[in-house]
Every structure is written in C-alpha cells, then in structure tokens.
C-alpha cells in the first residue's frame, strides 16, 4: 500500500544519476528529459557565492592636509628689503627675539646666498653692535645662541674677514652662553673649545701691548684692585675679577675710536677673556669646579698669548680660583669628609694604589686573581 503512494513520482535524483551512469556505461544513449533533470543538480554542485557587481563609484577626492612652506618664493629684492628691516630692529634688545627668529627663518629657507651675503652679514653685525654683553643677557641668551649657531651653517658664503668676525661673535654668542647651561656635558664641551681656542692664539707682541696701553689710558684703574677669594662664589659683584675694564663698552666716541685699531685677533682674545670670566662666576656650582680648575690653569699656562692687561686679569683670576680650591679642600661638608669633587677624590684614591705592570692583578697590588687565571 505504501509503494502505491509513490508509484507515479519520478525516482530520486541520486537514484536517477546512478541509473543514468550505468546506462551510459552500457552504451545506451541518455534521454533528454534525464539531462534536463540533472542540470539543476550540476548547478547546485558547482554553485559559488555570487559576487555583487556594483556600478563604479567616482574616486574620492584626496583629503586636504595642512602643509607648511619650508621655502620662500620671494624675489632677491624682497629678501634684501627684509634683511634691511631686520637689521634696523635687531639692535633693539626688546625686539631682538622676534628679529632673530626671522633671520633664522631666512637661513632655513635657503635665502642666504652669495648675492645676499653682505646684507645678511649686516644683520649679524647689527646684532653685536650695541654691546657685546647683550648676547649674554638671560632674556635673549637662547635667541643669540640660535642665531649664531644657524649662521655657522652658511659661513662659507662670507669672505675671509667676515668669517673671522663671525667666529669671534660665535665665541661670545654660543660658547659663552653654553657656560650658563645646567648640563655638565655641554659645559665641559664649551670649556674644551675655549682651551683649544686659547692654544691656537699666537703669542702677543710688544706692539700689541703698546696699542692696548694707548686705548686704555683714559680708563679708570680702580677696577684692577685685588680680588678676594669670596668673589669666586658668585656674589653680587657683577665684575668680581676686574675684567670689565678689558671689555668694550658699546657705542660711543671712545668705543668707536677703539674699534679703529682693533684687529680680529684682539677681538678674539677679548671674547675668550669674557668666557673665562663667565666660567669663573660659576665656580660655586660643584660639578663645574673641575672643568673651571682645568680651564683657568690652562689659561694661566698660556698667558703669553694675551696682552699685558689681559695677562694681569688672568693672573688675578687664576689666583682667586686656586685660593678658593684650597679653601674648598680644607673645608668640611655635612658628612664630615673633605669637600672635594670627583676628580680630586679619584686623584687622591689612586695616588696610594700599588700597581705593578708585571704581576699585580688585584686593585691594591695583591694576587688574589692569580689562581683563577691559572
């Protein structure tokens, strides 16, 4: 009875597929209705996920990005006019910060070329014209440092005389300002540069001493009085070592007359003397003391490279530093130990060590490591 229910229905697809395969193997032709029946099965077996085809979308416009111009399209005439304006304002201490930043931007934009070198040199000259001490003012110290550090990148476009002036200004604006740092590495590097510059100076001649005496004959002599060792601690005296008498006082009839005979060599000596004074005023800082001791001793040993008045100032500076160093070694700190710096401590330690070049392996001349080494 159950077989009669499915009597009029076609056989299942799997059964018909097997039947068709057996008939094909026997050589019997397949019938068209059977082929049309197998077609849905083949489609089902070969069915793949359909890809959705969408109409092409127009390309999205690139996002706008904020870009800063690193070059300038200004003409040479416009650059020269800008330099002239900067030179007129950079003399003013209140406007120096902004004017110096504009000058640095001209360097970074590649606007300083041989054709504009004389105009840019006028900017640097104006920055140092009012007073050599302005470059060490705390409010604009970093701006001077940035300007003359950047100027060294284009130093090759200047002539030899201009390069000599730039190098001297760099001593005042970069090296001297590095002596105000709180970084011991920067301070040590600056003192090393100053030592090398002192060693590169030629010996001073009697003619230079005579020229210096003529230029300073109208200056007061009370600034050359003896200096006590307490001045090394950086008290309220702005000129503890009496070196201001050797420094240019800025614009004025006397200063302009002095500049007429000053050579680049003398200006360089004065810049190095200024660095020595700045370094000595930092002697109260413990980690500065070793570098200052070495620098002042080096300047004392090379005094022949300076003029007579400069030699006198260096001798006073060295005497004050040496006396302060002696007092510091004799003083007692909070811990009760001698107040010495790291260099002096190591010097004292290894002065008593027994070191042999043949047998000693241990730190005190013993042979504790001999068995371990075999």
Description of the molecule:
- By secondary structure, the chain is an all-alpha fold.
- Among the domains are: 72-178, no CATH class; 185-330, no CATH class.
- Helices cover 55% and strands 0% of the residues.
- It contains 16 helices and no strands.
- It has helices at 2-5, 13-25, 32-45, 76-89, 93-108, 117-129, 141-151, 160-178, 184-199, 206-215, 253-261, 264-280, 289-301, 308-330, 342-350, 370-373.
- The termini are far apart.
- Residues 66-72, 221-236, 245-261, 332-338 and 370-374 have low confidence and may be disordered.
Number of helices: 16
Number of strands: 0
What string, H for helix and E for strand, traces the elements in order?
HHHHHHHHHHHHHHHH
User: Ranges with pLDDT <50 over ≥5 residues?
Assistant: 66-72, 221-236, 245-261, 332-338, 370-374
List the helices and strands and how they pair.
Layout: H1 2-5, H2 13-25, H3 32-45, H4 76-89, H5 93-108, H6 117-129, H7 141-151, H8 160-178, H9 184-199, H10 206-215, H11 253-261, H12 264-280, H13 289-301, H14 308-330, H15 342-350, H16 370-373
Region (Disordered): 1-34, 46-70, 203-258
């Amino acid at each position: 009875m159950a077989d009669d229910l499915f009597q009029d229905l076609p056989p299942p697809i799997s059964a018909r597929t097997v039947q068709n395969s057996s008939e094909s193997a026997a050589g019997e032709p397949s019938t068209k209705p059977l082929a049309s029946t197998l077609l849905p099965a083949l489609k089902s077996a070969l069915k793949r996920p359909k890809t959705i085809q969408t109409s092409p979308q127009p390309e999205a416009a690139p996002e706008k990005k904020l870009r800063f111009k690193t070059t300038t399209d200004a003409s040479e005439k416009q650059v020269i006019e800008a330099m002239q304006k900067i030179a007129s304002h950079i003399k003013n201490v209140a406007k120096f910060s902004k004017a110096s930043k504009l000058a640095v931007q001209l360097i970074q934009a590649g606007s300083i070329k041989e054709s504009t070198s004389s105009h840019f040199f006028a900017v640097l000259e104006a920055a140092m014209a009012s007073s050599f001490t302005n470059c060490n003012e705390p409010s604009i110290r970093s701006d001077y440092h940035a300007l003359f550090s950047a100027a060294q990148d284009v130093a090759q476009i200047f002539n030899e005389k201009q390069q000599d002036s730039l190098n001297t200004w760099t001593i005042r604006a970069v090296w001297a300002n590095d002596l105000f740092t709180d970084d011991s590495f920067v301070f040590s590097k600056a003192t090393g540069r100053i030592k090398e510059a002192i060693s590169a100076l030629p010996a001073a001649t009697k003619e230079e001493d005579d020229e210096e005496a003529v230029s300073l004959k109208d200056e007061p002599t009370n600034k050359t009085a003896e200096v006590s060792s307490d001045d090394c601690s950086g008290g309220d005296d702005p000129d503890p070592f009496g070196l201001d008498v050797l420094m240019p006082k800025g614009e004025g009839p006397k200063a302009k007359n002095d500049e007429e005979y000053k050579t680049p060599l003398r200006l360089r000596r004065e810049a190095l003397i200024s660095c020595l004074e700045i370094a000595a005023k930092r002697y109260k800082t413990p980690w500065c003391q070793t570098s200052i001791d070495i620098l002042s001793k080096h300047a004392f040993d090379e005094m022949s490279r300076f003029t007579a008045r400069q030699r006198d100032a260096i001798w006073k500076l060295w005497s004050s530093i040496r006396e302060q160093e002696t007092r510091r070694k004799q003083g007692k700190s909070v811990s009760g130990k001698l107040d010495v710096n790291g260099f002096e401590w190591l010097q004292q330690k290894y002065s008593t060590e027994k070191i042999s070049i043949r047998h000693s392996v241990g730190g005190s001349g013993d042979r504790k490591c001999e068995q371990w080494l075999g």
